[in-house]
Amino acid sequence: MQQNAWITLPKLPDQFPLSTDSVLLADFVSISGRASVFDLGAGAGTLGLLLCARHPGCHADGIELQPQAVQAAETAIRQNRMEDRVSVSQGDLRQIENFFPANQYDVVLSNPPYFPAGSGAAAASNALALSRTELGCTLADICRAAAWLLRYGGRFFLVHRPERLCDLVTELRRNDLEPKRLRLVRHRPALPPALILLESRLGGKPGLVIEWDLVLQNADGTATEEYQRIYGLGGN
User: Fold this and answer.
1) Which residues of 61-77 are buried (b: 16+ CB within 10 A; e: fewer)?
2) Which of 103, 115, 137, 190 could join 141 in a cystine, given CB atoms 3.0 to 4.6 angstroms apart?
3) 5-47, pLDDT tens digit by residue?
4) Which domains can be identified in the chain, with CATH numbers?
5) How high is the mean pLDDT of the chain?
6) 47, 59, 143, 187, 227 from 172: Cα distances, Å
């Protein structure tokens, strides 16, 4: 079993590990009250479980292309006794209109594939290839699906690579999703950013807030206080 500060996960297949990216994204998401949340490319359901464990009023749905991942999500949901609050459906987010009605969610989030199809080294399995590269969906597909699902004024959160920021902002604005909050993630203070966390709002006005960088390790390699807080390890 894998244990973290909020949920217990069964041992997941190698294709669907609990990633730092998902944990950081769950911490970056801000919700309150009885929020309705949707996870695009839900994988093994980690994001929905993390958010619902932290926010008692939250309900999270998700869509995932790979049946093995959906099975892993169902196992994790049962293990955490969250069948009434978290669900993951098998389906193709590129056809989101065939699965879920429009304008029903307060928050949409995604930990999407980072690399365009055909770039980088080939993954060891088809499941890993789909999770890492845009073989099953592109950035444009994800932004369009988020805009379909969100209520007007709803928010879209995602984690991505810094080098894709221009592509990301272009696709967001093409779908009336205005970037509102950005945070860079560094592994150590002297290293360049490895990830970006971005919040956008459907129908929002221009105006981007850039937050202090999230640094995961001190210069000596020890975990920062913020890393400890995010992982529930006793930080402030």
Assistant:
1) bbbbbbeebbbbbbbbb
2) 137
3) 456 765 555 555 567 899 999 999 999 889 999 999 999 999 9
4) 2-8+18-230 (3.40.50.150)
5) 88
6) 21, 24, 6, 27, 29
Convert the pLDDT of each residue in 191-207 to its tens digit.
999 999 999 999 999 99
- Which residue is associated with the tokens 């307060």? 106
* pLDDT reported for residue 231: 86
Q: 209 Cβ partners below 8 Å, 6+ apart?
A: 180, 181, 182
Burial classification of residue 1, based on how many CB atoms lie within 10 Å of its CB (0-12 exposed, 13-18 middle, 19 or more buried): exposed
